């Protein structure tokens, strides 16, 4: 290489750097390492948004649904809503002496969370009904809004809303910037998420689908209220997820993200229709920065999903290797 | 007035006409006669959308809910969905000999619609359950989509979708142009409205709230389907309307329009919170161009609403005098 050639090469490199610069700076997914997962996401979004592409999807039909616990924020050592319920049970325990000898209240009051979890989903629903029923939706929103700004995670000491995944925030924003409507479809309580989902995830209340108690409309002293009843309306988990999606959205998503077998049917429903479809599982592989669990976990068990992801064309995101950051700093 | 003054005056008039012209041409509610109703609508929209106004409402909170039957389209001589159900019952009758002697099927098959209506809402729900249950949501959408493009109203001979109210189409569009999100909240079936609401009203499936049957997720020969069950999920009427609003939208509307006492609680819920609120009742007063009915009607009964509208600050739209057109031509 002579001087002139070298000079030309340097200029070319500088020019390349200059052109590459803005592209790198505007990477919409900076917390995602380059690799198969990131490539799959970007190429899916590009093909469904490119006019004239065989896979083009009109903007109105770009529906993306996200599980919450374990997909958008951490769910260990137990679902965060359970910390809220624990605080409520403790506050109300003096009015309920029977809880000292009734499961899962007794375990919860003793701090034996394994005992609480052993009562299964039905036990958890008993806790929800006992502590939430009778509150108006407005009272409940105020209670959650106040709790979520002060309560802290027992291990990390962070606010729970500081334990949302930075790569998933970027993914939500990236999809919205490409004309997607982003929804939460969670087994957690719909009214537990609504008070803060817009601030934290940019997802407004009307795009939150979750488990719910029946509501009753009453007029109290001339003031109408909606009162939470001690009766399940929808368990938005497993088979309930496609049901919640149809009820609230009325369209089939083209993109769905989950992390556990509770999301299996949502991914199946999303990805088994015609046209371009995207299914994604967040695999918790990072014991150092977060938690590592899958097939044997009592929370967020992921077994069938791991077995079938390949055959179904779902991408499995390896938290440890695919993400260069877990939580927003 | 000398020649020069006259010339100046003419120029001034022409200029005024020129400036007035576009304003008149862009009247967003041309089918509404000038009067108290139109003035109330426009002044409400202006005050909630004017930044700095004491009544300003951020765009995200501009939720407007509309009843469908009798508010956006005609509901006489009976709810249009009942014509769809009639056609289904007739088509299925040969497989159900027991219907010949079971109400309300027997009345329906004899064409005795008064007998059908006498069975009340419960009877209508039986009809819905018997004819819709077992269909998948997708099959049901196809059936409704096909029916709605060919079935015609017995009196007018119009397609049912040609019997939507032009002034209400303008109102929907005017609200959306001012940042409102427009929703249907109807006692009619949610999946009956979704297939055509976007084309006819500009309201997408995710903004349609209605009565519903429970859904069940099944995988049939590897293909997932959502099957309508013979069990009510929500009756989105009366007390059910605020419940449906909270479940689907999660925010309290600031604008609600209805036409019958089935909309009373939706209007009450909407207008009894703090801040600028708008409640509106379409009063069917036009026997010539549409139908005239209120306190004694079996369909769309409006009694309590008429009694209390004034005290509650709801405007009562007089179809005959407030609208210069009823249906779109």
What's the CATH H-level superfamily name of one domain in chain A? HAD superfamily/HAD-like
Which two chains share the most extensive interface?
A-B, 35 and 35 residues
Quaternary status: homodimer
> What would you report as the Rg of chain A, rounded to the nearest angstrom?
23 Å
What form of chain A results from the Cα inertia axes?
globular
Biggest sheet architecture of chain A: 8 strands, mixed
Low-confidence stretches of chain A: 14-24
Structural class designation of chain A: alpha/beta
Number of H- or I-type helical stretches of chain A: 13
What is the helix content of chain A?
40-55%
Written description of the protein model:
The structure is a homodimer of 329-residue chains. Chain A has 329 residues and is an alpha/beta fold. The first copy, chain A, has a domain at 28-76 and 163-322: Rossmann fold. The first copy, chain A, has 13 helices and 8 strands. In chain A, strands 1, 2, 3, 4, 5, 6, 7 and 8 form an 8-stranded mixed β-sheet that branches. In chain A, α7 packs across α9 and α10 (240-248) crosses α11 (264-271). The longest helix of chain A is centred in the N-terminal third of the chain and has 23 residues, at 3-25. The first copy, chain A, is globular and about 65 Å long. Residues 14-24 of chain A have low confidence and may be disordered. Chain A binds chain B through residues 60, 137, 181, 190-191, 194, 198, 204-206, 208, 212, 215-217, 219, 222-224, 226, 233, 239-240, 242-243, 246-251, 265, 268-269, 272, and chain B through 60, 137, 181, 190-191, 194, 198, 204-206, 208, 212, 215-217, 219, 222-224, 226, 233, 239-240, 242-243, 246-251, 265, 268-269, 272.
């Amino acid at each position: 290489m002579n001087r002139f050639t070298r000079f030309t090469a340097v200029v070319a490199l500088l020019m390349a750097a200059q052109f590459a610069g803005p592209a790198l700076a505007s990477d919409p997914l900076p917390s995602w390492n380059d690799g198969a997962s990131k490539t799959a996401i970007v190429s899916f979004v590009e093909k469904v948004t490119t006019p004239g592409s065989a896979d083009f999807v009109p903007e109105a039909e770009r529906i993306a649904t996200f599980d919450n616990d374990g997909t958008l924020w951490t769910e260990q050592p137990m679902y965060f809503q359970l910390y809220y319920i624990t605080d409520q049970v403790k506050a109300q325990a003096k009015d309920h002496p029977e809880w000292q000898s009734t499961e899962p209240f007794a375990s919860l009051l003793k701090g034996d969370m394994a005992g609480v979890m052993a009562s299964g989903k039905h036990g958890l629903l008993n806790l929800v009904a006992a502590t939430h029923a009778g509150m108006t939706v407005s009272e409940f929103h105020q209670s959650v809004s106040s709790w979520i700004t002060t309560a802290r995670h027992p291990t990390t000491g962070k606010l729970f809303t500081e334990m949302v995944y930075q790569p998933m925030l970027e993914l939500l924003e990236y999809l919205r910037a490409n004309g997607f409507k982003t929804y939460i479809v969670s087994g957690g309580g719909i009214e537990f998420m609504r008070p803060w989902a817009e601030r934290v995830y940019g997802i407004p209340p009307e795009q939150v689908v979750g488990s719910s108690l029946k509501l009753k409309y009453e007029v109290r002293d001339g003031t109408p209220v909606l009162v939470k009843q001690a009766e399940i309306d929808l368990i938005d988990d497993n088979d309930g997820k496609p049901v919640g999606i149809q009820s609230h959205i009325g369209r089939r998503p083209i993109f769905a993200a989950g992390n556990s077998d509770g999301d299996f049917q949502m991914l199946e429903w999303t990805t088994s229709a015609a046209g371009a479809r995207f299914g994604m599982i967040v695999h918790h592989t990072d014991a150092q920065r977060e938690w590592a669990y899958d097939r044997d976990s009592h929370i967020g068990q992921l077994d069938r999903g791991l077995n079938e992801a390949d055959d179904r064309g779902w991408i499995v995101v390896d938290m440890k290797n695919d993400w260069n950051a877990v939580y927003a700093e």
